[in-house]
Automatic annotation (TrEMBL):
Residues 140-327 form the ABC transmembrane type-1 domain. The chain crosses the membrane at residues 29-53, 144-166, 178-199, 306-323. Part of the binding-protein-dependent transport system for glutamine; probably responsible for the translocation of the substrate across the membrane. Belongs to the binding-protein-dependent transport system permease family. HisMQ subfamily. It is a multi-pass membrane protein. The keyword Transport applies. It comes from the Bacteria. The keyword Ubl conjugation does not apply. This is Amino acid ABC transporter permease.
Amino acid sequence: MQKVFALPWQALTRQPAPRQRRRPRQWPWHTLTVLSLIALAYAIWLSTSMIAYEWRWNRIPQYFVYQAEQMQRASEPGHIDSIETLGKTARVTLASDSGSQQVLAVAADSLLLGEGDLVDEGDALGFTRHWTAGPLLWGLWNTLWISVVSGAAGLLIGMFTGLCRLSPNPTLRDLSTVYVEVVRGTPLLVQIFIFYFFIGTVLNLSREFAGVAALALFTGAYVGEIVRAGVQSIAKGQNEAARSLGLSAPQAMRHVILPQAFKRVLPPLAGQFISLVKDTSLVSVIAITELTKSGREAITTSFSTFEIWFCVAALYLLINLPLSQIANRLERRLAQSD
């Protein structure tokens, strides 16, 4: 049997078989995360116990939904002809002095009068109950629509501003630069005050319009810079190739440059809109009852400071976490389409 010998240089160049890298265990780190959260919760509990704070979570549900009571009154003087009880509802038949009848449905446990009692116009007979949204839900709704409207307007303003920053026209470029620098160089709270008390007074604008407009202009300045940076990050050869194919400058920007830039500016845009949701709390200074102002009003009646603020923070997370997840999914999908 013939033996095969390896030459010296073949022995030197022979590579060892690659070893499979063992995947590090993840459960110790997950355990550490859970322990950290438990420690944080214990620290919060300990801090509240040191100031002798009494938790009253049972008071919180009424600030989300509650049963409102609406008083039912007699429209004409007369007397109660009959009362028919149907479960928790009582049907009251009122016979007026003019011969007409009035039938009212009230809660059975709220009846204030009995059969045969005389009533005058406006006398209370009882009240009805119906579920309605509490102040925290109304504040959440106001925060949502303010964020959506001001975000959409800010996106349009930012797109226009970003393209003006790149325009060869000196006037458009200079005006957009002044707008961006003034807005980014002054606090949003000051801009809201100026827009509401000065511009809003001169133009007779409502506080809601003034608040949305101030947020849209503030967001538009930052979106404009994001768009400008995204467009400038695209290689110049892309524009030159589009123009060589016969596309005009606007067509090249619309069909070639902007789609590529959108993939790059999506993460900062998502972060900007998440910041916008939190910035809506500042419009409470012009008496718009959004989520933060609703929380402050609830604290004045419930005296449950920590519970209310934890609920307000959770509601802001309820808005922002889905936005982050949607942005991440869209970013991954756009990355796969490259």
